[in-house]
Structures are given as structure tokens and as C-alpha cells.
Amino acid sequence: MMEVTQSGSAQHAAVLREFGCEHSLLSRPDGSASFVQGDTTVLAGVYGPAEVMVSKESFDRATLEVTLKPKVGMPGVAERSKEQCIRQTCEAALLTRLHPRTSITLSLQTVHDDGALLACCLNAACMALMDAGLPMHCLFCGVCCAIDQQGTIKLDPTAKEEKESRAVMTFALDSTDCRVMMSSTKGSYTAAELQQCIAVCQRASESIFQFYRDSVSRRYCKA
Amino acid sequence: MAAGFKTVEPLDYHRRFLKENCRPDGRELGEFRTTTLNIGSITTADGSALVKLGNTTIICGIKGELAAPPVDAANKGYIVPNVDLPPLCSSRFRPGPPGEQAQAASQFIADVIENSDVIQKEDLCIVKGKLSWVLYCDIMCLDYDGNILDACTIALLGALKNVRLPEVHINEETDLAEVNMKQKNPLNITKHPVACSFAIFDDTIIIVDPTVEEENLSTGMITVVTDEDEKLCAVHKPGGTALSGEKLQDCISRAITRNKEVNKLLNEVLISVKPK
């Protein structure tokens, strides 16, 4: 069941691309989701809580492992860095202390990359964790924005816009207070521009969280 | 008795100090450990630097090699950083291929080099389309006591300032590169990025320059990289508890002050090093 929505907020010509998601599309993982932002598509699968290797076992919490596979080629150092960001964001959102000595495995596959990849991965990860029914104390969403050479802030840039811009920033925001959980930036910018970008992303995250609520309620409240 | 309490309840032990706005080693919340910088210690490398941030020891060695420039950027050279966390520095690292922390640190350093424009890659090109320099920056940790990202960026900057590359030109008749080892030039360093790392405790308290115990007990980490023009090159917060706007602004201000302290130290060290 595929749902598609369009949303926008007209500041700085800052509009999110058309986004949509699909739940439970894979049969083997405990939870799975696919998230589409414009042309960028990421597929996520979650297994857990499951058996953990004794070497990675943690006595008081669940151990989360994240694997991100690029569309072409072997995973490299850049993928490891993104995996670290996604893993620590998920660990902060999940109630890992409810499942000690278990493992939760999150596998992400890039189906197509047209900009804002890390943000799309975070959204797919959150939807897959929800689909798996894992307890979380807040939801999170990923928002990407770019500052172009003239200083305008563009939300959800395409790959072409990312290449032409002076700075690209990806933030993970939590659903309770809309504060910054994760930040990954490229390029250089001033502190004032950073605060402006965070404000723009916080406004955009409201529409993404509303979409999460709508898609889950549509799924569980079938008339 | 305090040692027993620290082993049994490490988080509570640290919390008691933080309530009094100080830390177990006597530092304030915003105070860095003593930073020591030694430049040019590896004679076989083209440039090197050794940094000690408290107990954390990082060494960076840079070697230059010749290669053909990349096909899509014929007027640029390469700069290839690699961070290695060997089993020597801490018992948490096992022998074998680099783990996630080492790879994420390598990616972080590569991003800092690219975002801050510390050197222009065009300066590394010798002959457009034919010959350029490749700078291999090997950063190795010798003692892991927390906050390696800060120490790695200082080591990298120190080593880059110490690099002396020989003059190279292509002989028209033989079409081979000729290296003149007698004439060595330093690199043109345009920006001086400095990283400043913070650990977030219990969602509210932010401490600067965490030791390895503080890192393990923290609920989040954030690293801010600034250059000397007070522009931000990176705000690296790989997940963890959320941060409000005001706390983020405090971190940025502290990072800007740290940039000035480190650049002052770097300049003093460079003046004292005799030119080769």
C-alpha cells in the first residue's frame, strides 16, 4: 500500500519534495519500510530483538547494528560514517533498556540517490522501527537543506543542487521538542546561517511528523 | 573509598562532581587538558606532528608521492587522510581491519579537509593533466584517552604546516619527472581549522574535551570545527540526546575561543622549529 503526499512551506523558496512511504513490504524482517523523497529511495529492514553474539552483548541494553549498502559498489568509509550517525540516533530514540542482551539489526539499502540521502535513510529507519513495533520514547525524522552560492536556503536538495551549493546540512529532529538529535554538515557557513537552517528544518519536520501519523493511522484504522 | 565507589557506580561518581561544576580530574566544565605539540619528529616523512591532549597521543605523518591527476579534475592533486586506531592505544580495539570508529574518524578528517579548504588541491598539481602530488596523511593514535577528533585535527594541521615538498618538473626530452631534493617548498595553507569536542551528560550538562571515562558515560557527543574567520566548517553530532539552540550556540562560542588558543600554540611551535 503506497501513500504519497506533497507538502511545502514557503520561506526562502524552501519546499520539501514529494515524499511517500510503504510499510511491511518485505516478508522476512520483523519490520520494513521504504521511504521516497523526490527520486531518492531507501529501503529499510529491521530484525529484532533477536539473539546477540556474546562479544557484542550488553548486559543492560539491546545492541543496535546498522548496515547501509550503497546502490553501486562495496560499502566504504563514507557509508561507515553514515551508519555511525544513524545508529547513535536510533539508540537515543529506542528504549534499548527494555530488551537487554539482545540485538536489533537495521539494514538499509540505497535504491536511488538523488540528494538528501542521509535524511531519507533516517526517515526509512524510523518507519521500519515503528513497523517492527520496537518501543521508542520519541520518533525522529531526517531533513536536509543546502545553502547555495547566493545564500538562499534550499530544503531537500537534489543531487545536482547539492553539488552546486556552498554548504549541505542534514539534521535529525525529535518529535517531542523538535530539537537537533543528529547533525552532519558539509561546506563552510556562519553560525547565523546554521541557526537559520535549523529553524527552516524544524518547520519542515512538522509536515514529516504529520505524515508519519497519517500513514500509521491510515494503516491501522482500515474502515 | 572513592576508588571503590567509582568502580561500582561510575555515573553517580561523575554526577557528584558535575553538580559542583567541576570534574574528577579537577578541571572546570569548559577547560581543556594541557595541549602539547611537537613538529617535525619523523625525519623520513615529508611532514609530521605529534599532539598530546592530556594523555591522548596522536601522531600524524605526511608523505608525498607523484601520480596522474584525477580524470575529472585535471588541475587538482589528491590528499588522502587515514586514521588508524591500533590495539596499542586501547584494549577496546582488536587487531584486524579498521573498526567503525577508525573509519568514521577518517571520514571526519576527510570532510574537514574538504569543507575548510585548508589547502587548495590546485596547488598540488604540477603539470595539468600529467603530474600531481598525492599527500598521504597517516594519523595514528598511540594512547586513547578520549577526544581523538580534536587531537587528530591539530596533528593534521601541524603536519601540513611542516610539509616540505621538493621541486618537480617534467623533462621535455625524456617525458619523465625530475625531482630536485635540494629545493624544498612549504605548502600554502589557506585556512586553519580547529575542532572542539563536547560530551553531553544527562541531556543537560555539556563538558568540553571529555576523557575516555566521560565519553563512555555520556549520552551524546558533538564536535564543532571552526576556522580563523569564525566560520563553521563542520558541526558533527553523530546522534545521541537532542540539543537545544542556545546550548548549540554556547558550544560554537567555545569552539571559536579554542580556535584562537590552538592557532597561537601552533604559531609559537612553528617559530621555534628550525627550518630544514
Automatic annotation (TrEMBL), chain A:
<protein>
    <submittedName>
        <fullName>Exosome complex component RRP46</fullName>
    </submittedName>
</protein>
<feature type="domain" description="Exoribonuclease phosphorolytic">
    <location>
        <begin position="16"/>
        <end position="135"/>
    </location>
</feature>
<feature type="domain" description="Exoribonuclease phosphorolytic">
    <location>
        <begin position="141"/>
        <end position="200"/>
    </location>
</feature>
<dbReference type="InterPro" id="IPR020568">
    <property type="entry name" value="Ribosomal_Su5_D2-typ_SF"/>
</dbReference>
<dbReference type="InterPro" id="IPR027408">
    <property type="entry name" value="PNPase/RNase_PH_dom_sf"/>
</dbReference>
<dbReference type="InterPro" id="IPR036345">
    <property type="entry name" value="ExoRNase_PH_dom2_sf"/>
</dbReference>
<comment type="similarity">
    <text>Belongs to the RNase PH family.</text>
</comment>
<dbReference type="Pfam" id="PF01138">
    <property type="entry name" value="RNase_PH"/>
</dbReference>
<keyword id="KW-0539">Nucleus</keyword>
<dbReference type="Pfam" id="PF03725">
    <property type="entry name" value="RNase_PH_C"/>
</dbReference>
<keyword id="KW-0698">rRNA processing</keyword>
<dbReference type="InterPro" id="IPR050080">
    <property type="entry name" value="RNase_PH"/>
</dbReference>
<keyword id="KW-0271">Exosome</keyword>
<dbReference type="InterPro" id="IPR001247">
    <property type="entry name" value="ExoRNase_PH_dom1"/>
</dbReference>
<dbReference type="InterPro" id="IPR015847">
    <property type="entry name" value="ExoRNase_PH_dom2"/>
</dbReference>
UniProtKB/TrEMBL annotation, chain B:
<feature type="domain" description="Exoribonuclease phosphorolytic">
    <location>
        <begin position="193"/>
        <end position="256"/>
    </location>
</feature>
<dbReference type="InterPro" id="IPR036345">
    <property type="entry name" value="ExoRNase_PH_dom2_sf"/>
</dbReference>
<keyword id="KW-0271">Exosome</keyword>
<feature type="domain" description="Exoribonuclease phosphorolytic">
    <location>
        <begin position="31"/>
        <end position="166"/>
    </location>
</feature>
<dbReference type="InterPro" id="IPR015847">
    <property type="entry name" value="ExoRNase_PH_dom2"/>
</dbReference>
<dbReference type="InterPro" id="IPR050590">
    <property type="entry name" value="Exosome_comp_Rrp42_subfam"/>
</dbReference>
<keyword id="KW-0539">Nucleus</keyword>
<keyword id="KW-0698">rRNA processing</keyword>
<dbReference type="Pfam" id="PF03725">
    <property type="entry name" value="RNase_PH_C"/>
</dbReference>
<dbReference type="Pfam" id="PF01138">
    <property type="entry name" value="RNase_PH"/>
</dbReference>
<dbReference type="InterPro" id="IPR033196">
    <property type="entry name" value="Rrp43"/>
</dbReference>
<dbReference type="InterPro" id="IPR001247">
    <property type="entry name" value="ExoRNase_PH_dom1"/>
</dbReference>
<keyword id="KW-0694">RNA-binding</keyword>
<dbReference type="InterPro" id="IPR020568">
    <property type="entry name" value="Ribosomal_Su5_D2-typ_SF"/>
</dbReference>
<comment type="similarity">
    <text>Belongs to the RNase PH family.</text>
</comment>
<protein>
    <recommendedName>
        <fullName>Ribosomal RNA-processing protein 43</fullName>
    </recommendedName>
</protein>
<keyword id="KW-0963">Cytoplasm</keyword>
<dbReference type="InterPro" id="IPR027408">
    <property type="entry name" value="PNPase/RNase_PH_dom_sf"/>
</dbReference>
